[in-house]
Amino acid sequence: MKIAFWSNVRGQCGTTLHLTSMAVIQAMFDKKRVVLIENHDHLLNIESCLVKKGSPDMVMEGSSGYNRYGLENLMQALGDTSQEFDEKLLRRCSMRFAYDRLYYLPHNYLRNRDILDYQLDKKLHGLLDILETYFHTVYVDTFAAESISTRNILESADVVVVNLNQNSNVINHFFSNFSSLRSKAIFLLGSYYPCRRNSIYEIKRRYQIPDDRIYAIPFCMDAAEAESEGNVATFIGRNFLEPSVNNRDFMCSIYNAYKGIMNYSSASKGVGF
């Protein structure tokens, strides 16, 4: 199953935090093998959510350390008949968390955005097909701006999780320009707060969104701090079963949205509104 997390605006809707939190829940508590990739080179990315600062190259459970090779090595293996694509290569290229059930494929040396976009677009379908054979879910943190690989990721995904906020311009921009995504979209309203005009109930009514296709995720200061400190996996693990009072609304909302995404992707792939 391929799930793309995407927003029509950059850095305002909690896209990476939502993706990482749900992937950790699935790996840690549903005990599924999942893999996370991204098609951008932002400073704030999946790695910054999962890895504490000061240890970017040494993250490995059950070992003293490892040398990461990243997404580029996997893409190279797709076109190299002399290199076998197997579990050993996949493990060597990954950073692993949550009892070795959550894999993250960093992009190591393709720091030029255009080159990264070109290489991902060229190898995307083969890469996603192979990852699906090894993992229950492939999570893709998708670049908000227009790019070749972004278009192909959104087309290839079984579910597109569209991250919005309550800004009227953001909401109107999506429904005016990206209506083609509605047929397989689940909507998350990040940093949600109760209000009259752009409440979740009003947005559902205005745009005719079914109840099981939109979820509100409130802002949580502890989650935001965990994201900035590379402690999202620890934060989720500590708060999932017995969340503190300050984190309860966020954890319940993230879990409800996660279950809604899983139920929708299993029951109605490709079914429109």
In brief:
With 273 residues, this protein is α/β, with parallel strands linked by helices.
Your description of this structure?
Strand 3 (95-97) and strand 4 (102-104) form a beta hairpin. The chain is globular, with a radius of gyration of 18 Å. It has helices at 15-28, 46-50, 71-78, 87-92, 113-134, 148-156, 168-177, 200-207, 221-229, 232-239, 248-267; strands at residues 2-6, 34-38, 95-97, 102-104, 137-141, 159-164, 185-192, 214-218. The longest helix has 22 residues, at 113-134. An eight-stranded mixed sheet has the order 3-4-2-5-1-6-7-8, with helices on both faces. Helix 1 (15-28) crosses helix 10 and helix 5 (113-134) packs parallel to helix 6. Helices cover 44% and strands 15% of the residues. Mean pLDDT is 88; it is low at 56-67. It is α/β, with parallel strands linked by helices.
Feature tags:
eight-stranded mixed beta sheet; 11 helices; alpha/beta; 273 residues
- Count of strand segments: 8
Distance between the termini: 20 Å
The percent range for helix content is 40-55%
Strand order of the largest sheet: 3-4-2-5-1-6-7-8
Mean pLDDT: 88
Assess the beta-strand content as a share of residues.
Answer: 5-15%
Oligomeric state of shown chains:
single chain
Determine the number of helices (DSSP H or I, runs of at least 4 residues): 11
Order of helices and strands: EHEHHHEEHEHEHEHEHHH
Radius of gyration: 18 Å
Runs in which pLDDT lies below 50 for 5 or more consecutive residues are 56-67
Shape: globular
Question: What structural class do the secondary elements suggest?
Answer: alpha/beta
Main sheet attributes: strand count, strand direction, barrel closure:
8 strands, mixed
